[in-house]
Write a structure and sequence with these properties.
InterPro entries (chains A, B, C, D): Chorismate_synth (IPR000453), Chorismate_synth_AroC_sf (IPR035904), Chorismate_synthase_CS (IPR020541)
Number of helices of chain A: 9
CATH topology of chain A: Chorismate synthase, AroC fold
Largest sheet of chain A: 5 strands, antiparallel
Number of domains of chain A: 1
Strand content of chain A: 15-25%
Keywords (chains A, B, C, D): Amino-acid biosynthesis, Aromatic amino acid biosynthesis, FAD, Flavoprotein, FMN, Lyase, NADP
CATH class of chain A: Alpha Beta
Distance between the termini of chain A: 23 Å
Binding site for FMN (chains A, B, C, D): 125-127, 289, 304-308, 331
Protein name (chains A, B, C, D): Chorismate synthase
CATH superfamily of chain A: Chorismate synthase AroC
Oligomer: homotetramer
Largest interface: A-B, 107 and 107 residues
Catalytic activity (chains A, B, C, D): 5-O-(1-carboxyvinyl)-3-phosphoshikimate = chorismate + phosphate
Shape of chain A: globular
Number of strands of chain A: 18
Helix content of chain A: 25-40%
Chain lengths: 358, 358, 358, 358
């Protein structure tokens, strides 16, 4: 089993980068939900390639078609399936390097996993392109969550070694998250953002690539969501985040740094303010015992640098079983982090929707 | 749904710290597997409290009783249920602080989640004590994996700010993992281990607590295990790791640090050596596209400091809805990391067993 | 996977007839539900053996112990596990016929399924005794349903060829269901009941056994429960009913007979009476398109005769691979149907609770 | 949750009768399986309408398009999604009767279940048309099973009160099943088949409809497939069969009749013949303790008469909440049983494939 996730709302993904279409079926949605299609399109464009020099020139409009579960502009409550046709596929680019395993890609593992029968063109089912249906599903989920007052937003916490400030886990504003969602390059500090962009272009020029960290916040979740064993909010969100290609680390609240604190500093002391339960700090990222505690959920996902680089790399030919080298040509993102921002939000929205539907 | 996990092998946990018993049912095990009961007992003791001055004085022998699924010293293939009676429960310790929410514990979230009906004594279902049945299940899983040549081991990578060396992700030895499993305090470098222990005792003396990081390795997994969406090896393991109380971060391979590397450094170049596919480095922690790539799986889990500290802390009374303070008395671990080592290995064994049973 | 069922409420069963204990864990129950323990005991006694000459003389009190998920007489919302110790086990009775496969029992299929490692004593995990934890779970589910006004009841529709009247699918009374639940032999018509009992005793005397049909009704379900594909109310209930040992047929409403009707007769015409939607007939058994339609749910489950008979039967020795014969001695029910009545109700309650918890 | 089924192979259905497309995603298929597309088309035609006077004149070619999971004529091992566009939709036919609930259809239950937001046109998601993607999935499953020697076939056991012979549960031939699959009207006895057809045409003429029974056999299954609680072969197959619109009863082996037999007649005595374990009779339909026993699986599914009839029927207007009448016009099947034959086989193939993939 691979392509299905969810306990209450189930997301069933399918497709290959150079196949007929990619898509997703969402099962278990409430009926009667009006969807803002233009808003979904806006989310799709946040992820889509070709918006600037920092992303691949592959030209995919990512136009989705809803096939089912949607009638008179509202969800019917039956499975909602949407597909996106693959238009700009230059498949022959790939046949010549079919047997040359690209380092840090899923070429070799996919080949073994599927006994050589997987669609190798453009990464096939492993392609970052599969995040398009995820963004679609996330956009639907976000709209449902928004009607319940729940907001999700994120920013680029770092690109390579260039970092910007953390979200303020105690006082983060909904307005900030909204602003960030309208930015082409989602940073709080534009000056640092400029440095990040320059760093990306420099890496590109040097035939290299960069990674980074996305920080995400979820506001206004009801208290008491999630379960201790084995369905903590952290479990659910990390499960989904680690499905995004290139994610190698996930941390909540103070994350790895909390392991260096003493209890007296790490503990989030509690108070009641104007009838609302709060904590003075938010080192636990809004989750205790796997359950939401009324504070914002805060987490970070670490992305590795794009494995596709034009430099010479040592690798193997899977057919001849010989060592060889590769220089990856073609249209690739020197850094995927900026386009990953809406994907992080999308899986978060999917996870949160599933959790609150219990 | 909370207490059940797994696709192919299902683990169903139950129990409260001060209830009649805690336990776990394992569904889907192969029949005919001989279990080394003494070996399971050894694993239980690795987690059990009271072994030294660094852990709680609560005296629980953690003796398990297998109720089903086991006949003539072998698994029958039907659900295997084991329980552990709660013996040393001093429940009256807890009633007096019933309504005072301990900071960074699950007292408040559990109260909301279960509408005040949860068993609050000793953390109830949220208690670290629930990791005892997890260690039981992990010990069973480990024995099955060992018969397939798969080894799991881990060490204390850090306590507070004191760190020891990383596992060597390329050349890690099975023998080292075995040695570590026999140590009361699982470090590679005994000298640093001594510093860590002193740091823990110092924190205890100062009525404070410490956290740390556990690093874990899985050797000799078949290549091609796992799936891209939504069941990557990282997804499965992080899902389980984030179910362990106190874990706030999980990273694979180079983890968060990989986000700072350039692709040319981060990429694990590939080669064939004596007919075996390998990578020169292991920044991806043995997983590409969510699937095992023949290299050791390497990951780290960050634990927060024990929230139970004897210092005065600000908090609330959930009944009177008033601000108050708390000084947590009783028998608590100043650092949970040492006892968490076998728990990290246990959930890893559970996850890997589920993955290879596909 | 075998022992776990449910989407919203999960039931995890374990145990063997002659092992340490049998039991069940219920995961996902609401917190704060007060349970009437005496009422659960009454349900257990309905199923328990030894009540009269028509059932086995095996003396099991079926006393359950709740291990978890229950505190201060209420559910905590965490997994509720209950076990029943096996007391009256005469295991040596079974060793001598270990390799002789009893016809129409699961001896042979169990042996193959579990590669000979299953606990063969008294049917092991296949034993009708495993319906005791099911009755426990059903009794819990029933109490929750009753608080929502939902009633479940059933009667012995037939024993062998002796039949009594059908439930009136349009006007069935809650009071009738309650009365039936207090009868030791659950028939509407006592005169026919007496005939049935005599038929059972006659079969027993002739070293033979009988089957029969249980008819069950569910009243006051909310309209709109269930789903078309693949989770119809019929799917859910039949799934569970066919898990009860000895069930070979399940039908809803007019069942197999509806296949002989013309549409103009079979169709349940609709009307509004005093603001309530009703149908004039109930050939569909209260379910249309897999979803409840406001009428009572009516269904029947067919039980085969007890396979354990004292007559000589042809069979095989699984060890020697030779043909042989068997005369089954020991304490067996000449007819299981009377004791199956609360089991049918139990799985129905489990299924309905799961369905309405969506 | 509604549209997803399966433990090892997951089938995710979507679509409405008059929406853009209907389809299904199959997740978990082995990679490298070559599919005979023409064979799938043949199965689709067995179900398709318009083949003769006994079925609706709605002209749907049921041409499927595989969107993913299929490359170079083989499965890739990633989710295989196929869609069927809805071509011949005359949606305005339906708007005028939108609020008039058709008796014994899912109009009313669907309206309540989805709060009035379901696509009511042509039955929407409840339409028999949704069995087209099921037949697609079943055709794929059948091909995989055939490579393992497993054969599935069925015949029309009865139409109304006209019955033909039962399958011989002990000696049924693969060849017979194949022959039946090529018949437009799948009966063993052509003479009785003619009577059945005449009966259907007569009912049609009289503005009425008929139901019937489909009997199905599965040959050459490995022994030891299935599990006692809660995943018996009967549970799995009945779960799927009761998802087919119009099925109201399912029985295995002797089914309801076994409840009338004495044990000495019902029990299937066992023997070894030429090294193979067999039973002399097959009253248990090839399943004992929920597990296959080496004999053919035999079961029957009862279909109610098509609810769409041109006669005047009493019903309600859901908007005005008033009693009214309806005469259903349009293109309807006077009997669905003949077209249901490949659907019964399809869900059987889906269920068996899931079971043997454990």
């Amino acid at each position: 089993m691979s392509g299905i996730w969810g306990n209450n709302i189930r997301f069933s993904i399918f497709g290959e980068s150079h196949g007929e279409a990619i898509g997703i079926t969402i099962d278990g949605l409430e009926s009667g939900i009006e969807l803002d299609i233009e808003e979904i399109n806006r989310e799709m464009r946040r992820r889509a390639p070709g918006r600037n020099k920092m992303s691949t020139a592959r030209n995919e409009k990512d136009e989705f078609e809803i096939l089912s579960g949607y009638f008179n502009n509202r969800t019917t409550g039956t499975p909602l399936c949407a597909i996106i046709r693959n238009s700009d596929k230059r498949s022959k680019d790939y046949t010549k390097i079919k047997n040359i395993m690209r380092p840090s890609h899923a070429d070799y593992t996919g080949n073994i996993r599927y006994s050589g029968f997987n669609d190798y063109r453009g990464g096939g089912h492993f392609s970052g392109r599969l995040t398009a249906p995820i963004v679609f599903a996330g956009a639907v989920a976000k709209q449902i969550l928004r009607k319940k007052g729940i907001a999700i937003g994120s920013h680029i916490k770092s690109i390579g070694e260039i970092e910007e400030e953390y979200f303020d886990g105690v006082n983060i504003e909904k307005e900030l998250l909204k602003e960030l969602s309208y930015k082409e390059f989602a940073v709080i500090n534009e000056e640092i953002g400029l440095k990040m962009k320059n760093e990306i272009l420099k890496a590109k020029e040097e035939k290299d690539s960069l990674g980074g960290i996305v920080e995400c916040a979820v506001l206004n979740l009801p208290t008491g969501i999630g379960s201790p064993f084995f369905n903590s909010v952290e479990s659910v969100l990390s499960h989904l985040l680690f499905s995004i290609p290139a994610v190698k680390g996930v941390e909540f609240g103070a994350g790895f740094d909390i392991s260096k604190m003493r209890g007296s500093k790490a503990n989030d002391e509690i108070c009641i303010e104007e009838g609302k339960v709060k904590t003075y700090t938010n080192n636990n990222g809004g989750i205790l015992g796997g359950i939401t505690n009324s504070m914002p959920i805060i987490f970070r996902a670490a992305f590795k640098p794009t494995p596709s680089i034009a430099k010479v790399q040592r690798t193997i030919n899977i057919e001849t079983k010989e060592n060889t080298t590769i220089e990856i040509e073609g249209r690739h993102d020197p850094c995927i982090v900026q386009r990953a921002v809406p994907v992080v939000e999308a899986v978060t929205a999917m996870g949160i929707l599933d959790l609150i539907s219990q």
